[in-house]
């Protein structure tokens, strides 16, 4: 697994329609956050939400550093591992059909600062997904 992989958090997932909050460290982004340091827009989609989430899951699964761990009708969880040191980031997507968006949370398991890696990853996924 690697020295810098850390342990998979036991409290991931969606609870009452929400991800767990971002920690007070600059190594997480969360579309449900109200804090400026971690706030990021959710992914927009058109048409059927479940189809959009399945398309997003396939896109994430095709990324070289990603491994999809969980995929359900309204939720995707993937781990992203850095090539050299094996740091792992936990990335979650939640289909909120009532709001017409896919919420996202991307967080480093270890460390304090991620040098914008999680925000950049979500931005790249958003562009590839076509969510502008």
List the main descriptive attributes of the protein structure presented here:
20% helix, 132 residues, alpha+beta, TATA-Binding Protein, 6 strands, globular, six-stranded antiparallel beta sheet
Task: Describe, in plain words, how this protein is organized in 3D.
The protein is α+β, with helices and mostly antiparallel strands and 132 residues long. Helix content is 20%, strand content 27%. It has two helices and six strands; from the N terminus they run E-E-H-E-E-E-E-H. Strands 1, 2, 3, 4, 5 and 6 form a six-stranded antiparallel β-sheet that branches. Strand 3 and strand 4 (75-81) form a beta hairpin. The N and C termini lie far apart (34 Å). The mean pLDDT is 92.
**SSE series:** EEHEEEEH
The CATH topology is what?
TATA-Binding Protein
Question: Quick one: biggest sheet?
Answer: 6 strands, antiparallel
Total strand count, please?
Answer: 6
Instruction: Give the count of structural domains.
Output: 1
Low-confidence stretches: none
Outline:
globular
What is the mean pLDDT? Answer: 92
Number of helices: 2
The CATH architecture name reads 2-Layer Sandwich
The CATH class, by name, is Alpha Beta
What Rg, in angstroms, do the CA atoms define?
14 Å
């Amino acid at each position: 697994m690697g020295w810098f992989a850390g342990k998979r958090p036991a409290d991931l997932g969606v609870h009452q329609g929400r991800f767990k909050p971002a920690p007070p460290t600059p190594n997480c982004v969360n579309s449900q956050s109200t804090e400026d340091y971690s706030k990021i827009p959710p992914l927009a989609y058109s048409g059927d939400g479940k189809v959009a989430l399945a398309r997003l899951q396939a896109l994430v699964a095709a990324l070289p550093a990603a491994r999809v761990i969980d995929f359900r009708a309204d939720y995707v969880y993937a781990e992203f591992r850095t090539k050299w040191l094996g740091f792992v980031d936990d990335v979650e997507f939640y289909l909120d059909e009532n709001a017409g968006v896919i919420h996202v949370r991307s967080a480093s398991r270890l460390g304090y600062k991620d040098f914008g890696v999680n925000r950049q990853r979500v931005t790249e996924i958003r562009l590839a997904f076509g969510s502008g």
